[in-house]
Amino acid sequence: MLKHFGPAFRMTLFLTILTGLIYPVVITGICQVLFKDKADGSLILRDGRVIGSQLIGQSFTRARYFQPRPSAAGNDGYDATASQGSNVGPTSLKLFERVKTAAEQFRKENPQFRGAIPADALAASGSGLDPEISMANAEAQSARVAAARRIAVDQVRALVTRNIEKRRFGFLGEPRVNVLELNLALDRQWPVR
Amino acid sequence: MTPNGMLLIAVYFAVVLMLAKPIGVHMAKVFEGRRTLLHPIFRPLEVLTYKLTGVDETAEQRWTHYTFALIAFSAFSFLFVYFLQRLQGLSPFNPQEFAATNVPPDLAFNTAVSFVTNTNWQAYSGESTLSYFVQMMALTVQNFASAAVGIAVAIALVRGFARQQVTTIGNFWVDLTRAVLYILLPISIVAALFFCSQGVLQNFHAYTHVTTLEGATQIIPQGPVASQEAIKMLGTNGGGFFGANSAHPFENPTPLTNLVQIVLIFLIPAGLTYTFGVMVGDRRQGWVIFSACSVMFLAGVLVCYGAEQKGNPVLSKLGIETAATPGQPGGNMEGKETRFGIAASALFATVTTDASCGAVNGMHDSFTPLGGLVPLFNIQTGEVIFGGTGAGLYGILLYAILAVFIAGLMVGRTPEYIGKKIGQKEVKMAMIALLSTAFSILVFSAISSIVSFPSPGKGATGQPVARSYWNPPGPAAANVANSGAHGFSEILYAYTSGAGNNGSAFGGINVNTPWYNLTIGLAMLIGRFLFLIPLLAAAGSLAAKKRTPTSAGTLPTHGPMFVGLLVGTVLLVGALTFFPALALGPIVEQFLMNQGKLFSFLLFPILGV
Predict the structure, then answer these.
(1) ipTM of this predicted complex?
(2) Distance from A10 to chain B by nearest Cα, in Å?
(3) Stated pTM of the model
(4) Which chain B residues are closer than 8 Å to A124 by Cβ?
């Protein structure tokens, strides 16, 4: 047994340097050259200021903006240093009451909307940082956003349609809309004075 | 279930099927010491490795020395990971200035065991706990090392079948080195670059402070994620850079990266079934294993997907769309990401628990009871449905030994597998491996369900009682986040995941207390070492045996009948062992959910007051 300690120590040290230092540093070097924006977090600038990341959802509460999914990250949601889901199970009263309250609020905030509420609008995401909502969710909020901005709902719908991310290769993933990018596009097209 | 979702599953399976042969042939070449396309680049590095570490490439080891070497390596790996965490306050690459206080001894112990055993259970949340230095030098390294150890053990067991009348089963250091240099590292480099090109982070910056569109402050984490992500999936490790793991958009930003991630999980395990066929000289034997795994995988994913797409009947009466429509995925979206929807989340959950990966792209705790039963049962089979890197193959070979033994008993013939007579020793070793894992899952779950810690206050003579170190006062079961049957599922899942070296979780339970850190750590050690050491012993005894030619009396193990026999053995052993526990958790919860029964809060008697 003892005769294996030497190789064991040296092998651990060797692999630590090879796979723990050289490998990630070399990958970082290549990525920083080839994919700088992506490697640094797909950050979005407006007027020279970073206002978020394309991939990280942020909280929106004002009526004139599309709103993201419920988030369990941190105390108030969308805390990017505390990514997590709600972890409530299917027979939890907590889940039932949260969804019930959220459904009532959704209908109150979107009085023009009738019909069943899209599941993603009431269900907390896995990461708590989901940057996207479903097409149906965006459609359900369009009338409210249009009203808050005093523009025609068809104009908002057209903008949503332009921002739809389709299924990759026609079958991968779900069609969806990036909330931050959509809201930025809204502000660009109909600046708030 | 939508046509689109079924197409995804079909395409995924087709990709795995197509890749199994080329990667399997490559691995057979590597471990038989033949030249591969990668030799011009990596052979010099291999020679350098042996020179620096003092390993004699040509020396062969008996199973005992192979095992000693493995244990010594795992012990040093544990020490490295433990002390790197405890000293992280001194480390470079630490822009967030995480300190040793972020990782107290019990957490550092748990994490070190977890990464050394290829479990990658996370009692911590990476983005608020560990420096980039620790993520790289401790965790990324073990993602490579523990996966390579698994591959080495599988190859050693395969040699037990392939060789005859010899005393040795290979050289641990050589197998370890080759697994890293010719398999894990090259594929990880390609995968890491691909992930980064899709939006996975790769930098050493401090976290970015931004002011959002509505004027709030948001802190966006950074770090060398892509390099860790690649090996995390390829090595079936599963320990995420972030708390939310592969649900986090910085780890798994698009449906395409998601597909690549689950392909990486099955890549080596599926390939190893082919490697097995090549090395024992009968490729049909490899395809039999592949087919048995495929049957169980497909059955699992259909059950899981069906349950998740059906959704939660309790919520549907609140006016929520639970059916899939062109504009939204419907189903049970709690804990799932918009970009993945239902199908890709159910597929990921099935694959990650078939293998010993444990990465998650949706929160299993919020799955429907039946949807969550599939991951739980997958792990409880011993993760042999393709399984972990290496661990899957040596696990399913264990079941093959049992299958020929059971079949041999039924028809009254001497059990044989790949021309080797399966004797008392092999069956005993297989049973030790199987029972020790089951034992640690069931016994630890039972203890944590009933154990209670004294509450602070006055003792019998009025002196103040010290606060319980091990866990907050009261029942350990109070650490769960959900009450009723689901709470028990959380405890059962935690020990199942630990002993199975999976690492996924029903994440609501608070496991970052000394009690859970220690007991889950022990479960991980038992599940790893009391599983692979008996199998190495079996490898040693098999290698010494003569390969007998097949005769009319041999039970054929290369056809559909043996596929059925193998699947039957896995399901039977799993069901008999775990059905009572599953009945108390997900099974009863499924009935309760359909009745609309809800659970409000914990009603535990406070003991010891």
Answers:
(1) 0.96
(2) 5
(3) 0.95
(4) 334-335
